[in-house]
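Continuing the series of single-chain predictions for the mutant panel. This is the parent chain; the variants come on the following pages.
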Amino acid sequence: MDSSDTSDTEDLEETFSVVTDYEVMANKILPDLGQEIDDFKYNTWHVTNWRHLEKRITGPEFEVGNWKWRILLFPFGNDNQDTVSIYLDSVNPKAGWHSCVQLALVLWNPEDPTQYISHHAHHRFTAEEPDWGFTRFYDLRKLFTPCENRTRAIIENDSANITAFVRVLKDPTGVLWHNFINYDSRIETGYVGFKNKDATYMNSLLQSLYCTTYFRKAVYQIPTEYDESIKSVTLALQRVFYQLQTSDTPVETTELTESFGWDSIDSFMQHDLQGFNRVLQDFFERKMKGTKADGAITKLFVGKMKTYVKCINVDYESSRVEDYYDIQLNVNGCKTLRDSFKYYIQEETLKGYNMYKAEGYGLQDAKKGVIFESFPPVLHLQLKRFEYDIQNDKIVKNNDRYEFPMEIDLEEFLSGDADKSIPHKYLLHGVLVHSSDLHGAHYFVLLKPEKDGKWFKFDDDRVTPVIDKEVLEDNYGGEHPNVNTTRIRSAGKKHKRSTNAYMLVYIRESNVDEIMSPMVSEDIPEHLQRRVQLERALEEQKQLEMEERHLYLIVKIVTAERFKVHQGFDLANFDDRQYPLSEVYTYNILKTETYEAFKDNISRTFNILPQQVRFWVLVNRQNKTVRPDAPIPETYTNTSMEEIHKKMTSRQKEMKLYMEIADRSINGKTWFPTIPETIMVFLKYFDPDKQALEGLGHLYIQKFDKVGNITRVLCKKKEFPPNTPLKLYEEIKPNMIDEMKLDSTFQQSEIYDGDIICFQKTLTEREIQEHTTAGRYWNIPDFYKSFTSNVVVSFKPKFDYFCNVEVVTVENFKKHQGFDLVDFGDCQDSLPGVYLYKILKKETYGVFKGKISQKFNVFPEQIQFWVLKSRQNDTIRPYIPLLEFFSKQSMEEICINMNSEKNELKLFMEIADKPINGNMWFPITGGNNSILIFLKYFNPNTQTLKGLCHLYVQKSGKIKDYINLFCEKENLPPNTPLKIYEEIGSYVIKEMDLDSTFQLRNGDIICFQKDLTEKEKKKYIKSGYIYNIPQFYKSLSLYTVQSKLKPEFDLGLNKKCTYDQVAGAVAAHLNMDPIKLRFTKAHPTSGMPKKVINQTTNQTLLEIFQTAHLSIPAHVLFYEMLDTSIVELEMKKFIKVYWLGHKVKDEEAIDLCLPKSAVVNNVIEEILKKVTLSSPNLRIRLFEVHHDKIQREYIGTEPIGRIPEHVTLYAEVTPQDEIHANQNDRTIQVYHFIEDPIRVHGIPFKFVIKDGETLAVTKVRLRHRLGMSEKDFSKIKIAIVPITSYAEPKYLEDDDIILSEKKLSNEECLGLDHIDKIGCIEIVKAIFNQG
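Parent structure:
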């Protein structure tokens, strides 16, 4: 509304000017803004009775530029009593309307038009900003008296005139003076920009390359299906281009810059626009070799120029023709682009002391110069704006005016021998602009993306239309134009514009149609579309989860079962990281869910009746304990859980509950005692022999009963004789464990609901002495004190090579009766209706998919796995599909990235019968594409709910349009009336509006049934049948909650614990014999297993964790569950050997246990007992591998104690060609890598290079050794690589070469470069080292 902060204002109080000379006045007070005027009008409003005006009034309406306007006056100020406020106001503006207006408001004396005050401004009027003017137009008091060189008052006789001068300016781009609030580049221009990541020159160049569609298509043609974005520059650029093409929001370049290896602003500062352009062109020229895009860079950007020296007096010329990718043109001394080209080819005369020495002619006068032999279709011209200032010893920017045209003919700059059969007329396509000086640079680019289209300005995240003047004149540089010269305060000093062209892009007119040909869907790789759509779907899912998070409340439930095993303070440890966190039951529930529904759901989860359950709210007491405070009243049945949370636990983000379960009713009516008459306390028993607490549940007591009265009850709970002497303590808080007086009442002992009583046997002096001698705590207070000396130790399985993959098929889904696709439950070993696989973590997804496809007798391309993930509402649904680019990822990586449990993965296996369109088997999901849903049908006659199938539906499609498809899936007649529901959560079933769109997400479940008549409903009711889907879901019971033993767990152990005590605690957790456990320390930096801890050690836990460098590193111990006693095992060494068959890909793991005194020959003897050889005369060898390369081959006499723990051992039959090799044959190592020799994988092996053998024959032997088909082996490149140091591989291309003649050194070996999916998947286990 107020222009004071955003527009120019000016006071003009000249007695020589006359307001009524309106045209002259307008030209005087309205400066030239350089914009074309569409309409101009002025309007005068005579205001009378000023002192009695209302606070806000408007003048008469007048029309300018096809819109009505009026003057808006606040005679006594707008929120300011000291000034007059005057504005220009648009009348009833509509949404989407705008008008660009230059305005002046003049307040003047009606009797003397030379007495006036004026202000001017310009503004874009919209429905959101309908008026503009001056809140502090003038001091109110000064208007009524002559002042400030005025001879008369402005307001006389309580009246004055206000004149509005209004110029409506043309807005050819539609964005003149736009504030860009809620501006959408995609909607307004069809293009999007980049998010600013400091290197704005990169954004400008990428936009230019993107708009060169021939280049974009060529980049798309480079194979990247199995690349990783963060490691592949090509894939990262493909993604950027595709996102620029399809995204509605500015595009991120993080992955692209990370693929360059740029991770800081310093990295960006090391490059400039020209350097970055050359790096990109060189890189993609290499990447395009051997692909469909081969030669595209040369075709687009490469021209030829000749450098020559030509003698004047003799017939001699020396010349050299070179390629160029861009041309650097001088700005200094040149006024136009044509001047620069003339300067570039200007000849230099070599004479006098600078004569040229011509071969055979001696010193000669000569002409030296450069001439162009050809210009490329896309011409990049670098303007040399930056120069070295010798006097000041620094780089300075030249901001001189430099003009360039929309069209230029360059034929005159070609040599006489150049091909001039095609025109050399070039059209301006892009202007890359540098703004400011050397120290504060900003780049943007002006581009004309279509041949006959508009020009646009791409300035980071904003794209706007521009006119030719903004492309040319505004970027020529030079002095500021004579617009608003009053702003330039430095008198006598010329100010040059620091925003000017830095690089120009021209396209040859005859090539424009080819270079700028429109993109079609076939130009974009299918895998790229699927990849980006998947990522967008993931982002949408995350966004949806974030948006839904506030709808849910986290509820944590402690049960008697969880309390029983808790070792620590309170009933459980919810969030104190100093101690192991308790594994309580955690639920995400809707805040709107009623207490009745919540109680009903939980009771069914535990397979008990709702009336047997009562929930106690746990609160934080002032002494920092967390205890049950009060039960949730049954009167809260219809109260939402959010309201209960606010009323009963207002200060806690989560709701913590204790679930009390009654076995039987008290008097046939009630299940629980009334609270005012009784107190509920919790019991813990301390066993000094086990050094452990045991939670014994809760007990109701009377306030006035004596403490000693409950000792018999306590003895009964532990099955002690009734009169066993006991010691009772109250757990008041962590540092306060007080003994209770048995003859005091509970009221006298200040016992309240939720208090904890701990007890133990009263020990004899002898028993106390025995515990003390053994280093055990013998009483409850001391045991509690030991908690403060505890450390949390994380125990992990040492040989954790596998992850569990649970696969759900369509058949499983069809048989399932219940929620979700199947019931996963918490079962440890097997799940009904689910295929359970133990997969090597290092196995790639491609290998896993290949194995499963073989098992189900389908091709791998027919299978698509969907990751199943837990949602916030505790359902487990398909989340995203695993596409082709996951093929090279290990199953461990996928587990970690896709699932909260790093060793578990739940998958739905989708099988396609036939391709959709040639080579695409599955629809693209995500964004506005299809979504995957599942169908269930409820049959009230059979009282069954069965899974029918999965479907792809359009997110925007209406449900009623799919009714006949639903009917078809259940063989119902077309147009059968249906009732359709969405299974939102385990107990949330919502009927769907048939007229609404799906608006679901991947993995949602739709249930349907016939729409029954009232007669049919009554029939089912009479028969005792459930007749609708919501009732049927209510009747379902979930699986019984079982405790799943996790392989990784935390224990709180005292720092002074001995080895045996640690083993005892771990054994108790794992429910096994402690003598069959072995522990290994973790490496302090890598976290990997390092050194086995001897069972005979006398170190304490604290001493075990101490190292030379770190006093207490991360408290991690690896454990092994042994088949034999640790005492026996420590006399032996455990060795795992992988036995290789005749082909390198065949392997079998053999576990051996030998005395520590054994040698390698004993290992080979044991291996021979476990394998079958084709001949007893075959020779066996053992070799060790580290980092996928052979480190040594054993001769047999080495003690096994010298075999390092971190290596992998392989055993094989020594090949016959090695045994029978002659003196000229050479045995070398062969190993596998992918693209780069440092990216090693697979099983290395030894191989004989036969004397005089061609590479073609060697390849045949290699192929047989690997057990590969000719087709698969043809994908592998063979190279000579050094085995230790890094160097570029020397690829062997010619099949006729004799490899033995290469004279390979002892430091060289053969490398097999697996460059594509086939080479990775078909080798199967040769890909990743299973050890």
